[in-house]
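new request in #modeling-help
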Amino acid sequence: MAEVVRTLRLYWRLQRAAMRGALQYRLNLVIGVATGVAYQGSGFAFVWVVMHTFPAIGGWSLREIAFLYGLRLTAHALYVLPFSSLIGLDWLVREGELDRVLLRPLNPLVQIMAKRLGVGQLGDLLAGLVLLVVALPPLGPASALFCLAAVVGGALVETAVSLALASLSLRTWNTIAVRVFADDLFSKFGSYPMSVFGGAAQWALTFVLPVAFVAYVPASVLLDRTGELNVPAPVAYASPLLGVALFALAYRIWSRQLRHYQSTGT
Amino acid sequence: MIRVESLTKVFRRPHAFSGPLGPLRTLLTRRYDERTAVDGVSFEISAGEIVGYLGPNGAGKSTTVKMLTGILTPTSGLIEVDGRVPWRDREANARAVGVVFGQRSQLWWDLPLIDSLRLVGDLYDVPAARFTGSLRRMRDLLWLDDFLNTPVRQLSLGQRMRGDLAAAMLYDPPILYLDEPTVGLDVMAKQAVREFIAETNRLGRTTVVLTTHDLADVEALCERIILIDKGRVLYDGGIDDLVTAYAPPRRLVVELADDETRTFEIAAGQSIPELIAQVTAEHPIRDLSIREPDLESVITRIYAESGR
């Protein structure tokens, strides 16, 4: 317990130091946040336009789609805000920055997370929460709790995939292209009812890359649509736990790969 | 304090194929290129020693230091630092060692030096009262006061190195690893760094492992050196013993009337007055001196004999 408190305290101290550093380049910060908001705004506008052209996608109404979209985006924001510096892992490895991290008596992943806060992704969180609140179906206390767990679980699914792929960077492989691709699949396909993609694609997006479990499966539970899913209803109800399990697995992969870290030449 | 036995590190990389489909083949085949950076190194270092760990570029020095700090996991062999296995017990090991890489700063680039030192104090759980005492000592020993509030990226190399030394010793680790701490520094700054290391070792009985290409550092600080090349130990012992054992010939250096300088090796047992007489008979001489063998010539010779 004391160790957890210490880790959180140090995370906060390092994060604050990183922010003080970033504030030295005020203009970069402003541009970053503004771009983030504009980017998510355009995504939001796109859905709005689509929904005004077609009354429903795969039998889902505008409101249902907006809820799904909001759930996905909020989960995504909860992943990317704390883990945004994981994106630069290839660079950290190449520049020998990871050596420095490994010299400190603190969990390496926590140190990497504390390198910066994804302020540019604040736009994601804002847009996600607005959509979620506006399109929220009437929920009982149990469903509300499930909704909360689903957002965290979804964030953990995305984190797990990103962390597992990033682990391979520790072997000096360039993984950034693969990670960007996976991220793209999550954001392009994760926000729509999977039934529109058909058998093989839906199967792959459920069981190969678990895109469906970020938002589509839990949203189906909350919207009482589990009958359409390609997984049994109990599995759908357990979907937030899948995030926890995947994250635990990804963390094990990360720790293993850290043992195989080869550092740079000097 | 430090015990290393048959330490070996083999780096394994996927074989890079050439040709248009090369990258794909690299990805799909299981062929690896292996390079042995450290090859069966053994040594022991006692508490309070200052040891120079020397070798040409690519000899395996940095790889050894990275295994001692727990950054790298050895392929085989045994390491024990202050009773711990660094790679298995990385965080506990980190608390016991200070590390300075001359080529790379450990400080927070965009923040004032004092912020970096405070963060280091936090990371190593230094209590407030001890931190204040340590900081005062570092300020005195390394004259940090002039630039304590300057962002690290604006510091000169010498100032930055003093900041790095302060950060490495702030939490009083019993062991200090220095990887080329004087690289690129001017004479004054080098002197300041050396004095700090000597002082730290004398007062705190800190064990120091020093990697450097500047043999003046070694002569100023170390009584013992470990010489490695191609991942193997070539010599481990006192500096004086090394010079005696390898005893390269003394040399007679003469400056000729036409500004030319020539060097004659003095063979063992050869009479120096006779040699001088012989040389002066053949050439008009303006000046002459006899050069004693120095560490550099000894080490150059050892490298040459090891086939480099």
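bot summary: The first strand of chain B starts at residue 2 and ends at 14.
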